TrEMBL record:
SUPFAM superfamilies: Dehydroquinate synthase-like. NAD(+) binds at D37, G94, K95, A96, L97, D98, T116, V117, A118, S119, S125, Y131. The keyword Transmembrane helix does not apply. Keywords: Metal-binding, NAD, Oxidoreductase, Zinc. This is Glycerol dehydrogenase. It catalyses: glycerol + NAD(+) = dihydroxyacetone + NADH + H(+). Its cofactor is Zn(2+). One of its GO terms (molecular function) is metal ion binding. It holds the Pfam family Fe-ADH. Pathway: Polyol metabolism; glycerol fermentation; glycerone phosphate from glycerol (oxidative route): step 1/2. It comes from Achromobacter pulmonis. It comes from the Bacteria.
């Protein structure tokens, strides 16, 4: 199997980075589809329009709200095609960025992602998630290539509610351990290739940064004032985590996001918090003897991540719910990236130990 590493062409981060949007957008033509949710459009729309107009870039706004379903994608693609846009600028949280990826894939054009929260590492990746009409995960789709430019304004990120940042910590902390399992067991990354060493090194650096600076960065979340620790952790959560998972591969922690929503009380739990709990279950199943599980529990307490199903929102999960969650988890592609073949009983028992 060939080793494959993928990444955006440019990653730009810092307070005030949004001010460079018009200059970068102008590199790809004079008309862009702006994919943005209504809340972010109300907050940043006029500023974005002015920044692009200053560089002679005309915007066709495509507003997205709610889950990204196949019908929603079809509607957005039709609007984008009718607009004559030659590029896509996606601004907002994970769902707006996913919608932008779906449109960019349809138009076969450049994509600029501008995250307004750091709740996950979607800004750097080519993946996007589709849901059905019942809000259940339907499929994970892929652009041919990663976004061309990722523009991360840390002043904007620091102004978002702190719970988004906490979810980003949870999504990122698993990547070292998942990449290890994938590489150790011959798994494939998101490019259907073998994980290169570079991806593991990025995932390792991500974990070190989170453990060193996560609590201090969490204290700055929501303040609107990015600190040096906040800058480092944002880079870890978006860039290191994004490249670490996409080129390094995933394992049990992310596979569990297929099953956990079927447990009562967890359907609406943020992705990153599900991953955080899933990591503890994965490390339990690894039967580690290095003290990492205890260290992470202590760090979770510092930053406010859930360490049990109850803390995640499941009051009293039944054995049937845990069994169903385990069965669905093991159907995920990533579940095979593990030191041994797991059965539903072993995984359900591990979930029970974290109830």
């Amino acid at each position: 199997m060939l080793k494959i590493f993928g990444a955006p062409s440019r990653y730009i981060q810092g307070a005030g980075a949004l001010d460079a949007l018009g200059r970068y957008a102008a590199l790809f033509g004079g008309r862009a589809a702006l994919v943005i949710d209504s809340h972010v459009r109300a907050l940043l729309g006029p500023r974005i329009e002015a920044l692009c107009a200053a560089h002679q870039v005309e915007l066709a706004a495509l507003t997205v709200d709610g889950d990204l379903t196949p019908d929603a994608v079809a509607g957005l693609r039709a609007q984008a095609a009718a607009s004559g846009a030659g590029m896509v600028i996606a601004v907002g949280g994970g769902k707006a960025l996913d919608a932008g990826k779906a449109v960019a894939r349809s138009l076969h054009c450049h994509l600029i992602t501008v995250p307004t929260v750091a709740s996950n590492d979607a800004p750097t990746s080519k993946n996007y998630v589709l849901y059905d009409s019942h809000h259940q995960l339907l499929a994970v789709e892929h652009m041919l290539f990663n976004p061309t430019i990722v523009l991360v304004d840390t002043a904007v990120i620091a102004s978002a509610p702190a719970h988004f940042f906490r979810a980003g910590l949870g999504d990122a902390v698993s990547k070292k351990f998942e990449a290890e399992q994938c590489r150790r067991n011959g798994g494939m990354n998101m490019y259907d290739g073998a994980p290169p060493l570079a991806a593991q090194f990025l995932a390792d650096g991500c974990l070190r940064t989170l453990l060193a600076d996560g609590a201090e960065a969490m204290a700055a979340a929501g303040s609107g004032q990015p600190t040096p620790a906040f800058e480092r952790v944002v880079e870890a959560m978006i860039l290191m985590s994004g490249l670490g998972f996409e080129s390094g591969g995933l394992s049990i922690a992310h596979a569990l996001t297929r099953g956990l929503p079927r447990i009562g009380g967890l359907a609406g739990a943020p992705h990153g918090l599900q991953v955080a709990l899933g990591l503890l279950v994965q490390l339990d199943l690894e039967q580690r003897a290095d003290g990492m599980l205890a260290d992470l529990r202590q760090w979770y307490a510092q930053v406010g991540l859930p360490a049990t199903l109850r803390e995640l929102g499941a009051a009293d999960p039944s054995d049937a719910e845990l069994a169903l969650a385990a069965e669905l988890t093991l159907k995920a592609r990533h579940a095979a990236n593990f030191d041994r073949a797991l059965d539903a009983g072993a995984l359900a028992a591990a979930l029970r130990r974290h109830a």
